Amino acid sequence: MLTANGTDKMPKKFSRLVSLVEKQYQSITPGTGNIPFGLRMNGSLHTFGDKAPAFTIKLNDEQAVAALSTLDQNTIAEAYLEGKIDLEGDIMRVLALRELFNDKRGMQFLWRFVQPMLFGQVKSDKKWISNHYDTEEDFFLLFLDKRHRAYSQAVFLKDEEQLEDAVTRKLDFALEAVNAKPGDRILDIGSGWGAFVEYAGKKGIKVTSLTISKRSKVYVQKIIDQHNLPCEVLLEHFLEHNPGEQYDAIVNCGVTEHLPDYASSLKHYQKLLKPGGRLYLDASADRVKHGQGTFMSKYVFEGNASLLCLHEYLCEVAKSNFEVTGVWNDRHNYYLTTKAWAERLDSHREEIERRWGKKLYRIFQLYLWGSAEGFHSGMIDAYRVVLTLI
Fold first, then answer.
1. Which H or E run includes 36?
2. What is the pLDDT of residues 7-16, one digit of tens each?
3. What domain of life is recorded for the organism (predicted)?
4. pLDDT (tens digit, 9 = 90+) per residue, 80-90?
5. Which of 270, 120, 288, 100 is nearest to 187 (CA)?
6. CATH number for the segment(s) 112-389
7. Is the distance from CB of 241 to CB of 272 less than 8 angstroms?
8. Are the beta carbons of 246 and 272 closer than 8 angstroms?
């Protein structure tokens, strides 16, 4: 359905775009992603599908028309970040329409793999990861759980449970999984905002926490000092960490995605861990390695990061001195986690746009709601994995 009210010039360009999108829309497999939606520009509105639209894409200028005409996910996302496109309605339904668009990966996609070969993985990571985690902690604390500030999946007993309680359960699970007890030395890979350091440290566990974010180090050091914890935080990459004394256990919450060379990371875990010691890790996952889209690679997690490819990871485990103690599917848990983060982000929209700008808000809006939709639809997965060094 098309209604028009505007100049002859704009409806003509708009109608060409409508024809292009309609053709693509009709090619979508029925029932998999053909969600009814509207496309609006000035006084012109076209509705795709035969039901009430779940959302409307609003085009604010001719550049928006050009961006949408590419049918390229990243080009369209960038137009949204710049305010040339607005979205009205259920954003999870918007992001569920991925099949309508494609991801034209260009030279930037290849460059993310070339850089580690030229400059080394550690140096590249220090640049890439800092770009994400060196955003002010106040921003992250607006949407993370208030009790622990954890930046990886929680473990829910029921969908209605508070995020804070689900995060506590995940931290308890991690400690139990590695048989942690007071006085143990545990390596925490990826300090984040101190969730594991504070929780384990208050139980008398001696945690050495690694981060390559300067802001993260300063924040976590304050937590250690404030609570007089038997812990330390080091500004050091995991692959460069050589303490000279082995740990009783290792915990890695959400950093496996930044360690795509599974053989190298497992070899280093083995070097750092006492015989019989356990490794706990949790991660978002995909069925193929390096399947991350251009938008995520450019605006959220730069570089050669990759969601965990479980079958490839377990193949490398089979070649190591680790044995698999357990694997748990966390797809629904991560859906609930990212949904809670996204809802909290939206509730602070005005403050975020005032302090950090509309662009940062929209980047994380697409990232968090897109992740929630991906977990909900089964496009991406998540796991907890426990390994024992034999």
1. none
2. 344 568 898 9
3. Bacteria
4. 999 999 999 99
5. 270
6. 3.40.50.150
7. yes
8. yes
